[in-house]
Each structure stands twice: as structure tokens, then as C-alpha cells.
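Hi L.,

You mentioned the student needs an example of a multi-chain input paired with its predicted structure. This one should do, with 519 residues in total across all chains.
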Amino acid sequence: MPEKTPPAQKDSVNEYEREPVPEKAWKGPSSFWGMYAGEHTAGTEFMLGPLFIAWGANPVDMLLGLLCGDILAVLTWRFLTAPIATGIRITLYYKLEKICGRRLVTLYNFANGVLFCFLAGAMVTVSATAVGVPFSGVKMPTFSDMLPTGLAWCVIVLLLGFAQTIVAVKGYSFVARVGHLSAPWMLLVFVACGLTTLPKLQSHDLAQIWTGTALHGGSSLGFWGFVFFAWLCNAAMHLGMADLSILRYARKASAGWASSAGMFLGHYIAWICASLLFALELQLHGKGASNAPGPMVYAATGWAGLACVVIAGWTTANPTIYRAGLAFQGVAPKMSRSTGTYIAGAVATLAGLFPAVAMKLLDFVGIYGTVLAPVGAIIVVDHYLARRFGLTQNWAEKTGASFNVAVLLAWILPLLPFAYLYWYRNIFPSYLTIPVWVSCGILYILSAKVFCRAPATNPAIP
Amino acid sequence: MTTLARNLALAALALTVVPSALFAFGALGDTPMKVAMMAGAVLWFAASPFWLKGGKE
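Structure written out for the whole complex:
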């Protein structure tokens, strides 16, 4: 059914898009535990586990680093995101609009939409590795494959991308339901992958599983790499405040502890189990081993595992394409949601053709967080520090401005050295997320002093 | 109905993970383990919709 009405208008009452969530709609903590567990046990986990090994994980760095990073992520959700969410009870988009005006939110929407497309593309790639297993003519991508591996690969990706886009346009609620239902089962398939791989390993010496040697030369990730990656791979959600949209429904800020379900099940157990799959491949086939999730999971757990990879990739890609479509619609409000979703699906499918996106997922996730998280620093400043520094809270709302130059400068300027350090100095992007986030906050305080003049008293606005 | 669905769904989860644990300890072969896991998957998606609510967006 084509969607003509922008969701922001259609759902304005039920979803509280432009008003604080009223007390009657608040939810207890149990609503959030399952949601976080499901959201963070997804298709990306099948790629990230093997990538850790490719980046030279050693046992102590990986097991301890991930644990520390996950703890830091949970603490960030609990003590930064959740208190603000339960304090203001509005979405990130609405809060941003209040601070920086509608036109600048459009820019954020565009960046968000583009990054969502590439994330969805990586998940199309993951699903394609599973769909391709029964077909002997499909060459599975390896770490060194940046381009499509052949015609058969392209056909599978295009068909999958097309199907996922159509579902995102017409039948998204069904996939959301499947994703919700499959979460507990999917986690156990991850565990089963780990368990079935253990007896097949040629060596159970931890140093032979996580060897600490990067596959294609270069430096390995190291303890701090794991800490920062695990902490900040969801930086857009916690530091970047995207999860205001979820946690605004929480009765108390303590609902932020629910993120620990996602971190310790999805970002610890599932990552470790997925990495074991690739450790086995490496022991069997050496450096030429493929990290394509489909064949690895099929070898470990059979058709059930294959179904899990398809469902995991599909249920991650579909909402991502849907959200990217909404983001594009936010950029061009006259465009229908369907058109926005078709554009997002087309970009995601094209991205999915190139295994480079999935193979560079560690980098991509770091870039994603670093680009989007800084707007969260602006919200933190507005929420906690504005009065102390004499700034006007919700400046755009109070002045009627549609574009806050101070926010633009604070967001973009720290990203310039980030881009330089990442592309020209090969700094791991997750190392740069915190410096960029802090710089953005400080710059916003300074630039708001210069560019955001206090509004004339408007009795209509309290 | 919900109780039956819940019990079947829990059995499905057990079918998903217990065979792999048995395989890890050498108490079950590769093929029976994979068949049991597939049965667990089918059973889970047949029973869990009658037990778990939510997930519609």
C-alpha cells in the first residue's frame, strides 16, 4: 500500500513525534531488555566477529577489551542518554529541530540516510553470502575482494536488494515482526555456532584461535582498539542521542541498564562465537580463507544456520532501508515515503554489490558513529550546560530560526581533522569519536556565544 | 493455547542449542545435530508467534 502521508504527520498523535511522551505511555524496564537484546544481535555480528580476527585480535585484548568497551557503552546509555531521554521525553529529531532549526535537521537527515544505506548494503552482502551457498557458481567474497566477485554474485545481490526494498516499501511490519520473533532463536544460533566450532578447531590454544596477527599486514587492533570499538560502535545511538527516540518512553532512567542485554549478548557472546567460525576457516585454509558468513555458518550448523544468516541480514537491512527512506523524505518533504525508500533501497543494493563495504565494516561503523554522534554533544550542552554558560536552551525554537550556524560549525569543524586523520594517517576511526564529540560540545559553547543571540522575550513560549 | 505455544517455543530453543552442546562434547554426530537444529528453527517460527507479542512497527 503506497504511503502518501509523511509518517511524521500521520503518526503525530500515536508516536508522540512532536510532543513529550505522556505518562500514560511510559513503559517499565522489561520493555527495553528484549528490545536491546534483539537489536544488537543482528546480521552485522556475523561480519564483525571474523573481522576482529582479521585485524589481529589476541585473546586478552579481545576478551578483556570487548568487556571493558561494553561496560562503558552500558554506562553511557544509563548515565548520559537515559537521563536526558526521560528528562525531555522527545525524539532526537524534534530536540535537534528545537536547537538548530528545521533546515539544519535536514542536513543531519541526509547524512543519516546515506550512512544507513551503506549499513543496509553491508547486510545485503551478508544475506547474499547465505543465499549463494546452494549455488556452486557463486564466488564468495574474501577480505581482499573490494569489487563484485562475478555475475552470479551480482544477480543474487540485485534480487535480494530488490526484494528487500519492495518489502521495506510495502510490507515492513511483517519483517519487523519476524525480526522481533527471531531474536531469541538467533542468539542461540550464534551460541550453537561457537559450540559446534570448538571440537573442529585443530588447536584449542587461545593464541592459535585469536593469533594477534593482522591478516594483511599492518598493526593489529590491540586492547584499546577493542575497548573503543565496543564502546563506540553504537556511538550514534548513545553519545549521539538517537536512542532518545526509544528511551523517552522509559518510566525511569534506570531503563538504560537494559542496554546491557544488547552489549553482553550481542556484542560479546555473539561476536566471540562469530569470530570462532573464522578462526576455524583460517586454521583449515590459511590466509586465503573466506570470511563470508553464509558458508561458515552452514558448515557449523547446517540449514538452520543458513536461515539465521538470511534472517539476520534481512531483518537488519529492512528497517535500515526503511529509516533511510524516512531520512530522505525528511530532506525532501514533498517526496513520498515510498520514493524515498526506493532511492534508499537502490543505493543500499548498489553498495551491497561491493564486498568492500562489508569487509570494511569496522571502519564504517567507526565513521558512522563519529559523523553522527557529535550532535549528541550539542544536546548535552543544551540540556546540562546552557544555563551555566549563559546560552539559550532550544535556541531555534525560541527565536524562530530555521538554521543555527553555531551548530553547523560545531558539528562540521571537528570532522575535518577527523577526515584527515582517518584517510591520510590511517587512524582507526573509533579512536577519534570521543575527541570529535568533546570538540563539538566545546565548539558549540563558543560558537553559540558568538552566533546565537538571546531572543527577544516571547510571552507565547515559556 | 499460549501455554502450549510457550512450551513448544521453549522446546524449540532447546532443540537449537542442546544438540550443538552435545556435539561439542562428542555425544552427537554432525548430521543429527544439524537436523535437530533445523527442526528447532521450524518449531520456533511455528510456535513463537502465538506466544510472543510485539515487534509490529
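You could point out the following to them. Chain B has a mean pLDDT of 90. The CA atoms of residues 15 and 36 of chain B lie 6 Å apart.

Best wishes,
N.
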